[in-house]
Amino acid sequence: MHRLLHLREVQARATARRGTAFATMACLIVAICASCGGGGGGSGSAAATSTPSAPANTTVSSPTDVLMYHNDAARTGQYLAETTLTPANVNPAHFGKVAFLAVDGKVDAQPLYVSSLSIGGKPHNVVYVATEHASVYAFDADTNTPLWQRSLLGSGETTSDDRNCQQITPEIGITATPVIDRTRGANGVLYAVAMSKDASGAIHQRLHALDLTTGAEALGGPAQIAATYPGSGANSSNGVTVFDPQQYAERQALALVNGNVYLGGPRIAIRACMAAG
Fold it and tell me: Which end of the chain has the smaller Cβ count within 10 Å, N or C?
């Protein structure tokens, strides 16, 4: 068992009023970077759309939420809702690690935080953790109680091996920080990309949308990631570069902009490691 987590006291205690429920309907568009490095193929994207049923009980995000890597699309790391921590009380006597939370693998992705989420009719402040064993956990941030756990592996699958790359080892599951959209589905969703290997040895990368309250797949997912782009680099044919899930590691944190989820997968890291191996 692996243990984490450095939680900020303000997040462990944070509460926020539940926002006004509202409905939003927009087709999900997933933009996938097909070749972000190496081989001269340039960068590419592909779009897929789905039309889920109208959300029934969504909530407006709170200023205390941390829904993406470094807290905003600009990746500034700013936490502008801070009201508790000051230079005076951030000291060894009053500030530090508040909990160890047991999970099933390494944690490379940043944990995320949602405040005042109704689960079972009760409000919870929730910390979400994704692991390289391809699991996503939800913990109550105030009591540290596990609320749910979901494996993102397909039937009969395991996590990917490390592809002879020591940067992500011994397994590759969920490396990139997920992103949360509290306005999608019935209760909001967490988007995550998981890498896996099937019984024949084929590598898969899939985009998952998990219900925030249960971890169940939402919006008709998961979706197999596939993309093509004009290029003449590695894994190209007749001037078209094809996304190869065993050569591209999903390492960049997922981004959410205007309801669109953006993914980036650098090929160069795995390619270089495989060449060295």
Answer: N
Cα distance between residue 197 and residue 201, in whole Å? 6
Q: Is the dihedral of CA 236, 266, 192, 56 positive or negative?
A: negative
Domain boundaries, position 130: 2-276
Band (pLDDT 50/70/90 cuts) for residue 227 is confident
Number of H helices and E strands in the chain, helices first, is 2, 18
DSSP category for residue 166: T
User: What six digits make up the tokens of 146?
Assistant: 């596990």
Would you give the DSSP letter of residue 7? -
Which pLDDT band, with edges at 50, 70 and 90, does 265 fall under? low
State the total domains in the chain: 1
Cβ neighbors of 122 (< 8 A, separation 6 or more) are none
Rounded to 5°, angle at Cα 210 from 82 and 78? 20
What distances in angstroms separate CA 235 from CA 35, 38, 125, 247, one per listed residue?
A: 10, 11, 45, 9
